[in-house]
Amino acid sequence: NVLILDFGSQYTQLIARRVRELNIYCEIHPFNKIPENVETFKAVILSGSPFSVRNEDAPHPDLSKIRGKVPLLAVCYGAQYLAHFHGGKVEPSETREYGRANLSIIKDKERLFEAITENSQVWMSHSDTIKELPENGVRLASTQDVLNAAYRIEGEETFAIQFHPEVYHSTDGKQLLENFLVKIAKVKQEWTPGAFVDNTVAELKEKIGDDKVVLGLSGGVDSTVAAVLLHKAIGKNLYCIFVNNGLLRKNEFDSVLDQYKDMGLNVKGVDSSARFLDALAGKSDPEEKRKTIGRVFIEVFDDEAHLLDDVKFLAQGTIYPDVIESISVNGPSATIKSHHNVGGLPDFMKLKVVEPLRMLFKDEVRRVGAEMGIDPELLGRHPFPGPGLAIRILGDITPEKVRVLQEVDHIFIQGLKDWMLYDKVWQAGAILLPINSVGVMGDERTYEKVVALRAVESTDGMTADWVNLPYDFLQKISNTIINRVKGVNRVVYDISSKPPATIEWE
Ligand code: XMP
């Protein structure tokens, strides 16, 4: 195992991500909670920090059990920390040291900088600079503005770098981490989803003990994998709640609920469709619809959580991209938390939070889910927005419109599956437009609804392109929809990319 000591940098999780890309397991611990058994770790990495070592309240951990005993890589703040408190000197930088820089490598070509080319691009983000190296420090690399961009300590396997190897823009960052972990620290590259499951289950057991945990299931990949992990750890003390907001896909509530029960989860299905649809009646503004659904969800979940005695934890299927978003400069996006802060928190949000997937990216979540034997069909499901069909019914929502759109969506999605196209598409769905168009059926003129079909390819939903679905597929689906779904007489296919369009229409 590799230990990452966190000094509060926004990039700490990214270090973990890079380490795991090397198939090496790592754990992040706060700097003030160094594990007792620290000498059993194979290597330690010190993260960056928003603090300056010169601040009174800057993190000041005791590294005596680590230095000289376990290979150590100190990044940014870590590098300054080693210098400042061990005979070197750290001062405010004269020039701004943010962003791109190029390395001039002086020493250690065989070890830390093996296979890294001269002038390799690195990413800097610091306002202090190391003026003098600590005792026994040997300079390894410089950049144009930073004399001591990398150094090592003579007589120890201790290395320090001022730049951030974990960020994407440090071109050889991964190579450097590999050099440190594999070549220098001799860590084996054997992290697997199975190891993650074992470790996480052990941690959850330890953290939760005999306490009860409540979790909201959505039918999606993240909350399902989180539930299965927790179930492995604490069994029947996990109480899952699956809310039907009346805006799910056709038959989804019952079929997903059955699937959860088959998986042995202790899950309560709560059908609150009427409550959601009542609250939405007459609302057409997209943001108002989203907020209404968020508010009613919290009310329903809070009511349900109150029915359980003695719950101590709230589990969430938060994954790493959500974490990045919530700590980004723009602050948390429209999550449950942000718009509920105003009127005081509902009781369930005062519970302690457990987020077993906090460190994982979506592909890793899927691998972990597969490892635990979760149905591949469930793991391969397209993303589906929390507000569900509400944001695919443009304008106001009525039960009849929901029914129409569920039928259309079902034909489209089932068609994609039947034609083996489902897995080639990142996300797909149908949109009910708020206009009627003229048609002719038999001898009669019709004046009915238009639906749009949307299928996109993407990796993260941030950018997307429409999928070039086969014409004969589109022809068949269009025909089936118009013949089978009463109230629809026209089908169009959305051929807009994101940007400038978005995936959803609202
Ligand atoms: P857009 O429409 O912004 O969508 O291109 C990008 C991804 O986000 C999903 N999405 C949402 N998910 N609540 C959610 O949970 C929302 O309000 C919401 N709006 C969009 C969308 O389905 C796509 O995967």
Low-pLDDT segments: 327-343
> How many structural domains can be distinguished in the coordinates?
3
Strand content: 15-25%
Oligomer: single chain
Radius of gyration computed on alpha carbons = 27 Å
Just name the CATH architecture of the largest domain.
3-Layer(aba) Sandwich
- Find the CATH superfamily of the largest domain: HUPs
Q: Which structural class is indicated by helix and strand composition?
A: alpha/beta
Q: How many DSSP-defined strands?
A: 19
CA(first)-CA(last) distance: 45 Å
- CATH topology title of the largest domain: Rossmann fold
Describe the structure.
- Its EC number is 6.3.5.2.
- Keywords: ATP-binding, Glutamine amidotransferase, GMP biosynthesis, Ligase, Nucleotide-binding, Purine biosynthesis.
- ATP binds at residues 218-224.
- It catalyses: XMP + L-glutamine + ATP + H2O = GMP + L-glutamate + AMP + diphosphate + 2 H(+).
- It comes from Mesonia profundi.
- There is one protein chain.
- By secondary structure, the protein is α/β, with parallel strands linked by helices.
- The chain folds into three domains: 2-184, Class I glutamine amidotransferase (GATase) domain (Rossmann fold); 193-379, HUPs (Rossmann fold), CATH 3.40.50; 398-493, GMP Synthetase, Chain A, domain 3 (2-Layer Sandwich), CATH 3.30.300.
- 32% of the residues lie in helices and 24% in strands.
- The chain has helices spanning 12-21, 77-84, 173-184, 193-208, 221-234, 252-262, 273-280, 286-306, 320-327, 336-340, 362-371, 376-379, 399-418, 471-484, and strands at residues 2-6, 26-30, 43-46, 72-75, 89-102, 104-105, 121-132, 137-142, 150-153, 158-161, 212-217, 238-244, 267-271, 311-315, 352-354, 427-441, 444-457, 465-466, 488-493.
- Strand 8 (137-142) and strand 9 form a beta hairpin.
- Helix 7 packs antiparallel against helix 8.
- The chain binds xanthosine-5'-monophosphate.
- Xanthosine-5'-monophosphate binds at residues 290, 383, 385-387, 427, 461, 498, 502-504.
